[in-house]
Amino acid sequence: METLILNENEASKAAKIIKSGGIVAIPTETVYGLAASAFDFGAIKKIFLAKGRPVDNPLIVHIAKLEDVFKVVSEFSEKAKALAKNFWPGPLTMILPKNDQIPSIVTAGGNSVAVRFPSHAVARKIIELSGVPLVAPSANLSGKPSTTRFSHVLEDLNGKVDALVNGGDCKFGVESTVISLLEDTPRILRPGAITPEQIEKVVGKILIDDSVFNKITDDGPVLSPGIKYKHYSPDAEVVILKGEKEDYSDFVNQAGSEEKGVLALCFDEDISLLNVPYISYGSNSDSLFQAHNIFDALRKADKLGAKVIYVHYSESGGVSLAVYNRLIRAAGFKVIDLKK
Ligand code: TXA
Ligand code: MG
Questions:
Q1: How far is the CA of 138 from the centre of ligand 2 (A)?
Q2: How many angstroms is it from 278 CA to the middle of ligand 1?
Q3: Burial code of 98-136, b = ≥16 C-beta within 10 A, e = fewer?
C-alpha cells in the first residue's frame, strides 16, 4: 500500500485519516506510536496486522485532556489522581479498570485498560483533532527495537500503514513507565522515564513486578502480557556484560580476536580501550542520554552486520532501570557479571 509521509504541521491530515478508519505512526516524547481510534475495531485489527503483534498483547489508550480519562476507565482512584496531577501529561501509563465502551480487542479481553496522556505537542494535537482517544502501541515490527528516530519508522512501517508523521528524534527514547493501580499498592510493570523514586514521593510504597528483572517461566497469570514475548531484538545475538571498563574491554577484545562479527555496544569511557568495532550509547553516568540512544544503537549494530553484540551496562540510577529492562529483553536474559 502507499504510505503518506506527513510533517509535524500536518496533524489535521493525520487526524482525518484516523477518523476515516486509517492507522498512522505518530511521534511521542517516548517512542513513535502506531495510532488508531480506540473505538474502531477494524482499524485496531490493522495495527495488529501491520506490526505482526500477537492479539493477546493489549494496547495503551492515549488521551489529550484529563477529563477524557472517563471515556476509557470506570474508576479513577485517589492514587491515580495524584499520579495524574504530578506526571500527566508525560511518560506514565496507568492500568485501571476499563469502562464498557472500550472494545475488548484493546485490552486483550481483560477488565483493565492502560491509559496514557502524552506530553508531545504533535501527539496531543492529533489526538485532539481525531476527537477520540487513540490506541498506540510502539510503531515497530513486533519483536524489533522500538522506533525512536523517523528513519526507524520508515524502515519498519513504510508501505504497511496509511501515513507516517515525521517528528524527528524522540526525547526520552524508552517507552512510558507502566504502573498498575488495580491493587492497593501500586505496582510497576514496566520501568520507563518516570522513575520508581519519583512515583514513591507521590503515592508512598510501591512494588516493582518480578518480571521487570526476571524471565517469567511459570504458567501463572501474567500482569503485563507484553513481557512474555521476545522484545527489542536486533538480528544479532546480544549479551550484556557488567563490570569495570578494563574487564569489559579485555573480554570484548579477546572475543574479537577469536570470532568474527563481534561488536561492542559500549560507553564513551570504554572507547579508548577497545580494538573491535564499537557503537557508544553515551557516558556511563548519563542514563537519560543512554535511554535516548539505546534503540538506535541496537538498530545500527544490525546495519554494521554484527553477529554478536556485547553491551556494557552499569547501574547509574535515574532511568537506568528502564535501560536495563530493555537490554535484558534484547539479550534474552543473557547477562555475564565480569566481577564474579
Ligand atoms: O511510551 C509508550 O508507552 C509507547 C508510546 C507510543 O505511547 N507505547 C507503547 O506501547 O510502548 P506498547 O504496546 O509497545 O507497550 C504497551 C505495554 C505492553 O507491554 C502491554 O502488554 C502493556 O503495556 N499493557 C497494555 N495494556 C495493559 C493492561 N491492560 N494490563 C497490563 N499491561 C498492559
Ligand atoms: Mg512495544
A1: 4
A2: 31
A3: beeebeebbbeeeebbbbbbbbbebbbbbbebbebbbbb
For the record, the C-alpha cell of 105 comes out as 480487542
Regarding the beta carbon of 175 and ligand 1, being less than 6 Å apart is answered: yes
pLDDT greater than 60 at residue 301: yes
Measured from the CB, is residue 140 less than 6 Å from ligand 1? no
pLDDT value for 127: 98
Q: 0.90 exceeded by the pTM?
A: yes
Q: Which domains are present in the chain?
A: 4-172 (3.90.870.10), 237-337 (3.40.50.11030)
Q: What is the mean pLDDT of the chain?
A: 95
For ligand 2, the distance from its centroid to the CA atom of residue 120, given in whole angstroms, is 18
Q: Is 224 in the pocket of ligand 1 (CB under 6 A)?
A: yes
Residue 73: DSSP 8-state: B
The three cell numbers of residue 205 are: 510504597
**Which is it for the CA torsion 240, 171, 62, 78, positive or negative?**
positive
CA distance 234 to 209: 25
